[in-house]
Amino acid sequence: MISNPNSTSQSNGLFRQIVPALRAVEGMHLLVKFTHYPGHAEDIVRGLTRDDYDVIIAVGGDGTVNEIVNGLLGPADEDIPSPNEVPALAVIPTGSANVFVRALGFPNTPVEATHVLARMLERDLRRTIYLGTWNERWFAVNAGFGMDADVLARVDRAREQGFSATPLRYLNVAIRAWLRARRNPPQITVHAESRLGQTLHKKDFPLLFTSNTNPWTFLGPLPVVTNPRNSFDEGLALFGLEKLSGVRGVIGLLHLFGADKHGWLKRLVKEKTLGFDDAKHVELDCHTPQRFQADGESEGTFRHVTLTSVADAIEVYAPQDRRQVAQRSVQEVLRDFIRLR
């Protein structure tokens, strides 16, 4: 078990609840390691095989998952090990968004997720999933240029100053990034090829997201759904808006955040919206260097990035197949959240 002690919801009290639940699994022998610097989880698992450990349990957020995936699989431009050659991956969510583990069907609270995971370990319920690559690196959830990368960089800056990464802070930073992007939009050109041979070539998008699962992310309890068909069982999905300003820009934003259950808003902005599913290869180009993010971590500035989809890249413990995960509207999520509160 690899734990990131700097993730949002970790505490000594939490470990007094999750460790006994895991150790109660018959045959479990648990070794716990804590990370001490960015990239440490990647260093810990680098070179490990299934002969060393059956499973790596990540206690952290999407960034911790990203490090472990990159450590286990190595550079994406070299020989990739088969899923049964490296330890399987399990996750206990203690980050701020926890997109990866929630998309697999786990609860968002670490104690509840641990009890679900314990049952999965007892029954050995695993599945293989697709992963994405950007240049020689891996990502599990999403990656891209533009506004989302700008948001993450500014939230990281706030965290370095001692502020917590709350959903409200993300929303506040996102609104500011949206206003900046309207004044000085990035110009992203995309060329993509799907697994069925379809191609896409579009120029000068101010907003473009690449995701490996659905939802693309969460705003607290609210799922942000860009490509409803997307999942861990298909290639990459692209979502973009051709315009950020004006009424159609606002409508496109509302559609992005899921306020369009019946598709009425989508019909109004269809000709200005990009949607592309099951991509196996994507080329992204910018006129000027732009911030790039992968799995919620700012990766620096680039002008060109190559993305690919790798089928059946890694084994994960998961409570259900993705086709059993129902898509829920914002109203349904809010209703359940109010009931819980």
TrEMBL record:
Residue stretches making up the DAGKc domain: 1-135
Cofactor(s) for this UniProt protein: Mg(2+)
Protein's UniProt keywords contain Ribonucleoprotein: no
Sequence similarity: Belongs to the diacylglycerol/lipid kinase family.
Protein name (Swiss-Prot/TrEMBL): Lipid kinase
GO MF annotations in UniProt: ATP-dependent diacylglycerol kinase activity
SUPFAM superfamilies xref list: NAD kinase/diacylglycerol kinase-like
Pfam families for the chain: DAGK_cat
PROSITE patterns: DAGK
Gene: dagK
TM segment ranges: none
Keywords of the record: Kinase, Transferase
Enzyme Commission numbers on file: 2.7.1.-, 2.7.1.107
